[in-house]
């Protein structure tokens, strides 16, 4: 198997927008409140994808600009959040004016960015003392069936992804960290779709992807905590960091 380049993986979401929107989790309200500073009005949701976090930010009454490079992901966002200002752009070039937002959120995406370039762009678009927040939903693999699901979706994956404190550089204060634990109820059958939305599977040849999805189906059909269930709770911890423009 050839190792896909990080850039190919980052761009792979263009092929999986429907699965992503249908199967990926959103964000609990306490997370969303933590990643936006009090008094913020204008927020850039960078790498907004299909709008999972954007929807929550809009729900808090914030004025949100969603920037996302993938046309297919952005189309899902516009379909579900028709009033939101959604623009094509990247972490290197958001297209926003200087000092135009109070906060930037980056959910499930910092690992696709070049940190020095992204940090410089965030420092440019934030107003003085504005806040950047970086967050990831991470499955709690200590639950047996979750660990088995994770083992399957990582089979053959040679790309190392680090979900850790973002290197924001000296334009920002030292990041503050918080962990939120919660669970997303889902139908066991949707564990296949959740797997199909992952970048590793999106770049695989069809036969290799089908083999992994078949293994997921087998897990759902045979694991005692999944077999015959209408819904199960998928446990998550959301790891969040926030820092202010110094
Ligand atoms: C896992 S999705 C996260 C989407 C959304 N933030 C969420 O929480 O569901 C990652 C997103 O990052 C986008 N992306 C990848 N590389 C990027 C870059 N250099 N700049 C901005 N977005 C990027 C992808 O197109 C994809 O929509």
Automatic annotation (TrEMBL):
Keywords, sorted A to Z: Methyltransferase, Transferase
One Pfam family, short name: Methyltransf_11
CDD domains registered for this protein in UniProt: AdoMet_MTases (cd02440)
UniProt-listed SUPFAM superfamilies: S-adenosyl-L-methionine-dependent methyltransferases (SSF53335)
Ranges of residues in domain Methyltransferase type: 44-133
Gene Ontology biological-process entries: methylation
Gene3D superfamilies registered for this protein in UniProt: Vaccinia Virus protein VP39
Gene Ontology molecular function: S-adenosylmethionine-dependent methyltransferase activity
Keyword flag Transferase: yes
Listed PANTHER family: METHYLTRANSF_11 DOMAIN-CONTAINING PROTEIN, METHYLTRANSFERASE TYPE 11 DOMAIN-CONTAINING PROTEIN
Family per similarity comment: Belongs to the methyltransferase superfamily.
Protein name per the record: SAM-dependent methyltransferase
């Amino acid at each position: 198997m050839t190792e896909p380049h990080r850039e190919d993986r980052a761009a792979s979401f263009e092929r999986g927008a429907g699965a992503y929107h249908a199967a990926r989790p959103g964000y609990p309200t306490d997370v969303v409140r933590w990643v936006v500073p009090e008094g913020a009005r204008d927020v850039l949701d960078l790498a907004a994808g299909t709008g999972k976090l954007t929807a929550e930010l809009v729900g808090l009454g914030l004025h949100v600009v969603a920037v996302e490079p993938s046309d297919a992901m952005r189309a899902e966002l516009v379909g579900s959040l028709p009033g939101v200002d959604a623009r094509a752009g990247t972490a290197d070039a958001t297209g926003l004016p200087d000092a135009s937002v109070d906060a930037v959120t980056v959910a499930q995406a910092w690992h696709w960015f070049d940190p020095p370039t992204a940090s410089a762009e965030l420092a440019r678009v934030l107003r003085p003392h504005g806040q950047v927040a970086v967050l990831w939903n991470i499955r709690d693999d200590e639950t047996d069936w979750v660990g088995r699901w994770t083992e399957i979706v990582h089979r053959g994956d040679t790309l190392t992804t680090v979900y850790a404190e973002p290197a924001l550089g000296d334009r920002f204060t030292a990041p503050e960290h918080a962990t939120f634990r919660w669970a997303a109820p889902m139908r066991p059958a949707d564990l296949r779709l959740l797997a199909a939305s992952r970048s590793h599977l999106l770049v695989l040849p069809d036969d290799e992807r089908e083999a992994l999805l078949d293994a997921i189906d087998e897990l759902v059909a045979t694991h005692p905590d999944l077999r015959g269930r209408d819904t199960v709770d998928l446990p998550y911890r959301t790891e969040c960091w926030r820092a202010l423009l110094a």
